Amino acid sequence: MKIALTTAAPRRSPRGRGGAEARIVRSIGEAIADRRLPPGTKLAEESLAQVFSVSRERVRKVLLLLAQRQVVTLIPNRGAFVAKPTEREAREVFEARRVIERAIMDKLAALPRPLPPATLARLNEHRAQEQAAERAGDRKAMIRLSGQFHLLLAEFAGNGTLAGILAGLIDRSGLAIAAFERRNAHTCSAEDHRRLIDALAGTGGHGDGCGCGDAAALMMTHLDAVEAQLDLDAAPDTAVDLKSIFAEEA
């Protein structure tokens, strides 16, 4: 993303109307992905306009774009809310992720071996960042890096259409996790990602010579484990202060 809201781009000083709107999209998207804005949170136009020092018309355009990405719900005469998936929608999103990520793993399995050194270097660098975030207990970074890892695999698979679909699904599965994740759950761990990288690199010590079959199976097990952490009876607290969440944007 920047289709995916979970892939935070380096902050720049955007110019012009389009740049300002992109900045707001990124900021709201990151707050949703980091679970600072839980599902069901009302996104008041006036508050957001004050936070970002823009007109309500511009905020309205941003919310429409986010609604098109299915991470915001627009309700006539009530306003905009962070999308709140139902139990069925949450399960459908993970079902779709398994289909798409299986296809991505199949594409990765078809790549010549050994993998290019630059590819392995980027994967291992990302793994190190995830491990550092886990050691520091930085949950915000862990969530962001987790989504980026899956998108990184999609990038290496070389199919932009699959990557684009996955980006949207990661946004929506992030909402499902934010809404339904059990307290103290530990989803999408760096250790799981380490095993996936080792399997792709052929250092997992299992199965075929390159570990590609293992990698596909590991990915399915990984997604199953993430979904299993959902408590579909959970009711998130949606009383949040938008100004405090976006204090650094003011």
List strands and helices in order, with pairings.
Blueprint: H1 16-33, E1 42-43, H2 45-52, H3 56-68, E2 72-75, E3 79-82, H4 87-109, H5 117-136, H6 139-157, H7 160-180, H8 190-201, H9 212-228, H10 242-245
Helix pairs in contact: 1-3, 2-3, 4-6, 4-7, 4-9, 5-6, 5-8, 6-7, 8-9
Strand order of the largest sheet: 1-3-2
Strand content: under 5%
Which structural category fits the helices and strands? mainly alpha
- Percent of residues in helices: 55-70%
Terminal CA distance reads 24 Å
What is the C-alpha radius of gyration, as a whole number of Å? Answer: 19 Å
SSE pattern, N- to C-terminal? HEHHEEHHHHHHH
Number of strands: 3
Number of helices: 10
Structure description:
With 250 residues, this protein is mostly helical. It is 62% helix and 4% strand. The protein has helices at residues 16-33, 45-52, 56-68, 87-109, 117-136, 139-157, 160-180, 190-201, 212-228, 242-245; strands spanning 42-43, 72-75, 79-82. Strands 1-3-2 form a 3-stranded antiparallel β-sheet.
Keywords:
single chain; 250 residues; mainly alpha; 3-stranded antiparallel beta sheet; 10 helices; globular; disordered N terminus
Summarize it:
This protein has 250 residues and is mainly alpha-helical.
